[in-house]
What does this fold into?
Amino acid sequence: MSPILEAHGLVKRYGHVTALDGADFELLPGEILAVIGDNGAGKSTLIKALSGALVPDEGRILLDGRPVHFHSPADARRAGIETVYQDLAVAPALDIAANLFLGREVRRKGVLGKVFRLLDTRRMQSEADAHMRDLKIGIGSMSQAVETLSGGQRQGVAVARSAAFARHVVIMDEPTAALGVKESGMVVDLIREVRERGLPVILISHDIPTVFDVADRIHIQRLGRRVAVVGPGDVDMAEAVAIMTGAAPGNTTRRD
Amino acid sequence: MPETTSTEPSGPAVADRAGRSRDAAAAVARFAAVPTVGPLAALLLACLFFSLSTDRFLTGGNLSLVVQQVMEVGTLAVGQTVVILTAGIDLSNGAVMAFGTIVMTRLAVGGDVPAPLAIVIGVVVCAAFGAVNGGLVTMARLPSFIVTLGTLNIAFALTHIYSHEQTVTGLPKALTALGETFPLGDTDVTYGSVVMLVLFAVAWYVLRFTAAGRHVYAVGDNPEAARLTGVSTRRLLITVYTVAGAVYGLAGLLLVGRTTVGDPQAGQTDNLDSITAVVLGGVSLFGGRGSIVGVLFGALIVGVIRNGLQLMGVASVYQVLITGILVILAVGVDRLARRRRQ
It folds into this structure.
């Protein structure tokens, strides 16, 4: 199976600090790939490069085998890569449908939409409802303000937004970091639902048990490089942590 | 925008009835939570009080006068509202408006510029001031409070330099036309009042029914979320400040219409008066919440209190006193509502 998203030899330097030091990356179709690593291992820099939030100094990124160059998150989004952020990137005062379609609002057809820029609120509400149902997120009304939802439900809105518009990849950057245990469980179920719909997921997480629970493969990042790719059944958590911290060797060699 | 709650009719009748009373309670709570209800209630109370206290208040002529007296501040408040919804504030609007009026009147009277063109130039100058505000807020990432405090002083100084401290008189008809009245039944209504109401209506439509309006709310509510979801926050903010500037220019035209002169001393407290109207209208100074319709009520509350107390023969400082108390009450209510949400 050829990778849907891959990166080769990514380098990113900030002054003296080398955040990415020739990092490789591979996401296969239909999988949940977890990315773990200690603080400073370069996971968030890697993810930012893949989601267009920063431009790497060196290296190549290929989407579906074709090279891509993202200069902004909007570029990545246009290419079909959507990102869910840890800090609940929703507008609390707006309702669920408005949040789902924020920045991608649907206007009425004809003169009302073209000249008067009138929004098709009803259509956005019913589509939002369909997306939320699709992911089995039970929320009564799409005209409810997001601030009336729990943290888990809010993240549900963010996940639904990404899943609704992603054509190739959903990136989830610590989606459970701001949530309690029960709420995290809800979001983990959502991650599986997204995979069931055929969208591969990149999951960045500190939560090793969750990673072992949900991931198909685990990318281990250390000192700006990928040092190992393991299956959750091949190693145990202690071994994974050992690779992460450098106490055990990884299983991938660096390609220069 | 609470409009629809559709729950499938399922389950036994008892549960259905319980659900229905819960729906009713929710409907009442939703009604009370509509941001315009408070300001409207306050406005109606003030009107009721003055109707009972003086028989001259509730006449067509007097009510028309109230609207006419608030037309510049109300118009300024339209621009101010949009800026405040993005979690900014505009202290420069009164001074920018005053500069606009001096530009229009001096060009038309001494500058041999046709009056309509002078009006357009005045409005464009105000819009340019707005663009500078928006540019500094977004590009230089300065707080809007500081930026507009600076442009307030610049506009004030330019007004006095350009006018040579002279009031411009003898204006051509085009400049004062909006101060004229037309009969509506047996009441005379000022054209400028209609212009203000139309501006409120347009702002209401844009804020409520277009993507741009939603983005204004989103940027004030959570700018990071807006940016991450693909809203071009910079472009939006620059547009907001620029359009607000153009609206201040129109407010200047209304002011010229009402006073029939170009007065360099005009509008010096209008910035604070427009903020008062916005706050009384239930718009949150923290951004992202509130309705422009409430702001119209807020502007009218100030006008009604001033007018009513005048009719009762109460000294005008009491109007200022009451307005001050109302502002603090309104901000307090916003604060409380905010705390409850968190």
Q: What stands out?
A: The interface with chain A takes residues 1-7, 205-206, 209-212, 214-215, 217-218, 221-222, 224-226, 228-231, 288-289, 341 of chain B (CB under 8 Å). Residues 38-337 of chain B form a domain with the ABC transporter involved in vitamin B12 uptake, BtuC fold (CATH 1.10.3470).
